[in-house]
Amino acid sequence: MLRNSGGRRIVVLALGAVALLLSALPAMATPTGLNNIPTADVVPTGVLVLQSWSDFGSDRDTSWAAGFKYGPAQNWEVGLDGGLTGPGSGGGPVLQAKYKIPLQKGARVLLGAANISNDRDRHGDVFPYAVASVPLSKEVTGHLGYSLQQDNHALFLGADAAVSKNLTLRSDWIQTDDGNNSVWSLGFIGPLTKSFLVEGWASFPTAAAANTDYVVKVDYVIPLGR
């Protein structure tokens, strides 16, 4: 725990450095979620998650990106990320924010917006969405949501299953091209150490000539205290 003001100042300076770096980079802001969809979950209050990931496949150049998400208050999450190398490098930062509304028996709904930037030509339109997450059993949670993104109203759904304390399997599906195509994915998340997590998934688009895409992501979790 970083409980003293000096520790907090170091974290603030680090976040400022990341923000300056990302201000010169493009990104797809990544709210807490499964593989390709957001869920009605948020980072715990006072927790910072630094992230870095690689996106690769047979029909594209490998890209690298980095960013962070943070819980500034109860039921809130904000984040910012950007591309480091690969296709599309050189744009501005991309932001996301979401607010969770807890319900009974572990269910929750959430309103959020991702892909917020000042460069729509490079990053595309803002992705506003609503999503509900409901426990289906002790190990399995289902997720269902909808986005009103301009020119791409999209239904999305998914599920995650904790098969052990060190491995959670995740799958999701989302409409693309205003419902004319879709992408489904299969992946996992699990701890490497107490502070590091690793995620990975493969995405399978239905669009003509689109090939399977792969992502590997590392998360570093920092409890900042209060």
Main CATH class: Mainly Beta
**Radius of gyration over all CA atoms, rounded:** 17 Å
Reported for the largest beta sheet, the result is: 12 strands, antiparallel, barrel
Q: Flag low-confidence runs.
A: 1-28
SSE sequence, one letter per element: HEEEEEHEEEEEEE
Total helical segments: 2
The overall average pLDDT, rounded, is 85
Number of domains: 1
Biggest sheet: strand arrangement? 1-2-3-4-5-6-7-8-9-10-11-12
CATH architecture: Beta Barrel
- Give the proportion of residues in helices: under 10%
Distance between the termini: 9 Å
CATH fold-level assignment: Porin
Structure characterization notes:
The protein has helices at residues 5-22, 120-123; strands spanning 47-57, 60-70, 76-85, 94-102, 108-116, 127-135, 140-147, 154-164, 167-176, 181-191, 196-205, 213-223. It has 226 residues and is mainly beta. The protein has one domain (5-223): monomeric porin ompg (Porin, Beta Barrel), CATH 2.40.160.40. Strands 1-2-3-4-5-6-7-8-9-10-11-12 form a 12-stranded antiparallel β-barrel. The longest helix has 18 residues, at 5-22.
Task: Tell me briefly what this model is.
Helices cover 10% and strands 53% of the residues.
How do the strands and helices of this protein lay out in sequence?
Elements: H1 5-22, E1 47-57, E2 60-70, E3 76-85, E4 94-102, E5 108-116, H2 120-123, E6 127-135, E7 140-147, E8 154-164, E9 167-176, E10 181-191, E11 196-205, E12 213-223
Antiparallel strand pairs: 1-2, 1-12, 2-3, 3-4, 4-5, 5-6, 6-7, 7-8, 8-9, 9-10, 10-11, 11-12
